[in-house]
Amino acid sequence: MQNKGLIKLFAVLFGIVSIYQLSFTFFANKVEKSAKEYAKANVTDNNGRALAKYERKYLDSVANKEVVNLGFTQYSYNDIKDKEMNLGLDLKGGINAILQVSVKDILIGLSNDSKNTVFRQALANADEAQKNSQDNYLDLFYNEFENLSKGSVKLSDPSIFGTKKLRDKIDFNKTNEQVKSTLQEEINTSINTAFEVLRSRIDKFGVVQPSIQRIGNSGRIQVELPGAKDIDRVEKLLQSTAELQFWEVFTNADIQNFFFAANAKAAELLKDDSATEAAQDTTKTDNSIDDLLGETADSTKVNNEQKSLFTYFFPNVAQSQQQISPVLGNARVQDTAMVNNLLSNKEIRNLLPDNIRYAKFLWDYKAYPSTDGTAEVISLYAVKSNRNDEATIEGDVIADAKQEYDQLSKPVVSMSMNGVGTKQWAKMTSENVGKFVAVVLDDYVYTAPTVNGPIPGGQTQISGGQMTVAEAQDIATVLKAGKLPAPARIIQSEVVGPSLGQESINASIWSFGLAILLVLGWMILYYGRAGLFANIALVVNILFIFGILASFNSVLTLPGIAGIILTIGMSVDANVIIFERIKEALDSGKGLLAAVEEGFSIKGALSAIIDANITTLLTGIILYVFGTGPIKGFALTLMVGIATSLFTAIFITRLLVDGAVSKGVSLPFNTGLSKNWFKNINISFLSKRKLAYIISGTLIVIGLGSMATLGLKQGVDFKGGRSYVVRFDNAVKANEVADNLKEAFGTAPEVKTYGAENQLKITTVFKIDEDGKQVDEQVQTALFNGLKPYLGDTTYESFKPGFEKEGSGIMSYMKVEPTIADDIKQAALWAVLGSLIVVFLYILLRFRKMSFSIGAVAAVFHDVLVVLGVFSILYKVMPFDMEIGQSFIAAILTVVGYSLNDTVVIFDRIREFTEGKNKITSNLVNKALNSTLGRTINTSLTTLLVLLAIFFFGGDSIKGFMFALIVGVVVGTYSSLFVATPVMFDTTKKEEKEEL
């Protein structure tokens, strides 16, 4: 081998750089361990929120202090944090969310809230069409508008987009197509603005190594915040449009007579069966109004015999001047949707007297526990709106906002207004002395103080009795970052608690260590001293992989670790191919030096190694392009692993082997135990191909039959819904929990034991089609109430996802709306098809024969169908998740790559044996299969050992993923011998006959 000195220098320098880069992760972990110890020393009850607060306090104190001194340079905690290896959500906890910027709201804004009936109906139709379509919203709206208008009205009409706001871009003469083009530009601008606003907010949020990126032109923005623990805070920050308004307020005295009338009307409406069905009472009303409000309310007692408004809403009755308040009453969080429905009902709205006809009902921004602790209660306000629903003062007059403290040391948001706002605020406060004024952000009331006197200086505050410092900081952040051009709602989110993340790290370390030991032990057992050289190369390979990931700030996820461990098994393959070729050369009578040269040559092992790794690399690229989140992490580590494996197997191993050969060390490339393994094998594989066809055909037919009858268990990311992993203090029975939750959700959710007997995975589609920021909270509250008999003393605050947990609670959570679920499923289908097409073309290009491509693709289809069939047959009986989702698609594509790896090595040997010959004979094919059998079984066995180690010790969340890989490796090994090669042989014979 030439340039040995250069290769040694490169390997040493690369190793030093990798160790240097990884050292930052070690130092950062050391500091964070100290922060955890500090937090535990200051928190006696293991409260997750308190622990996070003290951890943050410690880390902030060392943020800019020297924590590492290497002699030639020093680093603060912030420095090493920027350079450490990034951990994904499944290892660190946090939230990954995809937000959809509302194109519908952008269109409404551009039309100046047009009331044109065709325009409004087209929007409504587009909403419905989007549920079952992959097209973007503007195209759907445009098609619906064309169908409805039939040329009677144009988009450029003054009542739609021919407004003063757009007069420089749209005039009445423009065609619908021209207007559509302009609208697309405006939408793109709005989405870009939304992206920048969100990025500004996230940068100020304080999470280390956040990620935000646009997803094509779909109006979707993906945000990943690893390490975020306060999930509620994050979701509010992301979805807040920052629409600040100042309103005059109706008091409870002004509005209470309307409530009594509305209560009677609601009772009439709820007598109707359809109304009762539409308004299912999901919670018991055992608690009296007195208990909830802590005051006498005899006139508003709930009649349990008949549902009414007061079944869900508990009015704050003013019986004296001292009881006058801007708070109209309270409701449980889960009942707010029902209260909204009733108060917006046309017959009930008609009961409003003329002086309060335009009352706009708004909820408080924050719920609080009821007196008995059984529910979260939230207050209702009414602001003095008008026909155009325009606030007295809008938020665009705010010049600056910051978090401060008031005279009682409570956190507040101080705001200063521009010149216009100062005049408006002075006028508004002058006209409302002794009355209440509400400060409203995104249609939630943050404060409604009494105006004691005029405020001429343009200064005001947002304050709340329960406002925390973090909330005040977030409000100031969104006001300074700017207003979103349209609402952005979370359509897909994945939340992993830090406790589950730490458990995943621990499980990964165990499986990683065991996998390495198994591979290292097997290589020494099989190849002796040469196996030791391969092991050294393998350890260097692992160092290089982690070094590269750390150097480029790549995110390491649980599937990513699985990809690294899988790379360990597959990287051995290159050494196995080389060593088997060297053994063949030695057996043919060549000397050790000549045998080594042949083994490492292109004509020897390198051709097969390069071909096999390129096919796997192509699969990795497809995964990376079409995958998201953890799947990208898996693909990245797979691709990095392939590159480093090639280098270490070809160059590092060669350096060690050459060094031993030059010193005259004996290298038989086997041990006394393995010496005669796979020697003198003469199996007639092709003669058994008809039997193999029957076996494979039977397996596929059974699998297809199962898929047609039993189907496949689609994951949340493919069908939409919410999925919670909930841990309990004691073992629970899944069927009992499902029955309990049936009352809370209306229909029984899917409940299955997830790992230990005290952990369940609960999947539901309850309210998944409903929009609104309160919906997620309502579903979570319903889940808590349904699980309360099993939660002991766990409070709702402790139950929610995020923060470290000692007892019961949500460990992880995923939500996927049906619209994006369809998109994910379609992307997965394209990923599989794209992979097959790319591989087909590569093999055709490499082997120059259609029969080779047909054989390889036939084997791949065979493997995919068998794995799908196994999942269809077993998903109801296996004690772990066997869902078909993004992770499963990653597993399938990995199986594709692995199967092709085997197949290409065999095809490469067939090509070698048939080179210069006119025909491919059965004897030559059998000879090629027998000569590569040792390599095939050896590689499959080492890979299986690795996969089994991960499967048994790698944590619950990837058991289904690993099971798919295990089945795939077994089936892929079989198909490369009994499907790919026979199909290639039969196709070749058919081609030869046609040529004659």
Strand sequence of the main sheet, in spatial order? Answer: 5-6-4-19-24-21-23-22
Radius of gyration: 33 Å
Report the strand count: 24
Structure classification: alpha+beta
The rough form would be described as elongated
Stretches with pLDDT under 50, minimum 5 residues: 273-304
CA(first)-CA(last) distance:
47 Å
Beta fraction of the residues? 5-15%
**Relative helix content:** 55-70%
Q: Mean of residue pLDDT?
A: 80
Contiguous helical run count: 34
Biggest β-sheet description: 8 strands, antiparallel
Could you explain how this protein is built, in words?
This protein is α+β, with helices and mostly antiparallel strands. The chain is built from 34 helices and 24 strands. The protein has an eight-stranded antiparallel sheet with strand order 5-6-4-19-24-21-23-22. A five-stranded mixed barrel has the order 7-12-10-17-16. Helix 6 packs across helix 7 (137-149) and helix 20 (558-587) crosses helix 21 (592-599).
Provide a short characterization of the protein structure:
This protein is of the alpha+beta class. A hairpin with a 2-residue loop joins strand 16 and strand 17.
Chart the SSEs and their pairings.
Blueprint: H1 4-42, H2 48-62, E1 66-69, E2 74-76, H3 77-83, E3 86-87, H4 89-92, E4 94-101, H5 103-110, H6 117-130, H7 137-149, H8 176-205, E5 211-215, E6 220-226, H9 231-239, E7 244-250, H10 252-269, H11 273-278, H12 289-293, H13 309-312, E8 313-315, E9 329-332, H14 336-344, H15 346-349, E10 359-364, E11 368-369, E12 376-384, E13 393-394, E14 398-405, E15 411-417, H16 419-431, E16 437-441, E17 444-447, E18 459-462, H17 469-481, E19 488-496, H18 498-527, H19 529-551, E20 555-556, H20 558-587, H21 592-599, H22 602-626, H23 630-662, H24 689-709, H25 716-719, E21 721-727, H26 734-745, E22 750-753, E23 759-764, H27 773-791, H28 796-799, E24 809-816, H29 818-847, H30 850-874, H31 886-914, H32 922-931, H33 933-953, H34 959-995
Parallel strand pairs: 3-20, 10-17
Antiparallel strand pairs: 1-2, 4-6, 4-19, 5-6, 7-12, 7-13, 7-16, 8-9, 9-12, 10-12, 11-12, 14-15, 15-18, 16-17, 19-24, 21-23, 21-24, 22-23
